[in-house]
Give the backbone structure.
Amino acid sequence: MHANTEARDFAADLGAFVSASPSSYHAAQEAARRCVAAGFTLLAETDEWPTGPGAFCTVRDGSLSAWVVPQGASAATEFAIFGAHSDSPSFKLKPKPTIGSEGFVQVGVEVYGGPLLNSWLDRELGLAGRLALRDGSVKLTRTDAVMRIVQLAVHLDRAVNSEGLKLDPQKHLQPVIGLGSPSEFDVVGLLADAAGVSADDVAGYDVLAYDTQAPAFFGAAKEFLASGRLDNLACTHAGLAAIIAAKENQRADGPIAVYVTNDHEEIGSASRSGAAGSFLEDVLARIHEGVGGTAASLRRVFAASTVVSADVGHSVHPNYAERHDPANHPLLGRGPLLKINANHRYSTDAVGAARWAAACAAADVPYQEFVSNNQVPCGSTIGPITETRLGITTVDVGMPILSMHSAREMCAIADPLLLKRAAQAFLLGS
């Protein structure tokens, strides 16, 4: 399937966004940078926030929210909320991270979320995240390719291809970073140097591994994008582009358009910046107060509002078609997903599905239904958590990919733009 120039350019911009976002903290910073460049005002949560119309954004740790208040907004104006998440499965740096064995210096890491472990082997990895300094400030840090999780050679594991690869997370997944003694090397010092600060000033850190290989187009017609962190920077990027477009196209009588990308979805969302935390609700309450609302009117507005929760989903796999529902085979390049689950692992119900269908129709975007094979339980998203916390009608959608949770995932380059267009129509109240 061939993609047009606009779709190719948008997919290339997604690749640039991924490259700028090796951690959730970098993703939130890059999203804020793009918002400010588009005319949004960056607000601190500790500030008094403006009242009335305008375009604004704020960052909490690895999460960002951006919103557009139209000229005609009042205490009765509903929210149209598009949500995604900024984190991806990886390996997180442990305390006392400089370790070693048999003359190699290694890095002590802990599995973060549910990565496809074998996909991280024999890849050149960097470290990225944030450093908390003793003076209370926070600095982002990022290295280039400095380490590798080394796979055992087939000569030393003759049964690996017939019996499968077995990895012990503690014994087999500590990356090699150098030769010598751990006493001669300092992983935290390396991160401090990358941030331009002294290692003695570092009081804490949230740092994860990332794959340093750049995103790239491939395929006979270059119709695919291969990249790390498509789960879920693909949806984060689409929503960000949609809220920026909404700023230029919002009707005076339209909804208050809100975008949020939450951290920590891959580990359950239970954090102050995760979907189970207060970040989105805090932002919505302050926006509503700024247009003259009260606590009581906020609950009435919630009853009239909608959340679209966007996360990547599974395209049918050509080599494992039996793992998918027999009647529902969403495919790369055919548009965004409507995600459905009888046990409410996804939030979609009939009302939410109708609202998503209306947005897609307004954007002239096709969509595909996704439901799991009954023998293959699905995961979940920020959707059910957000819906439960706020009581707002929520619909789960996404973008089809292959190799989900691999160090390097893939999508069709046609799909990111289609998701962005549907998100934009939704945020504009279509």
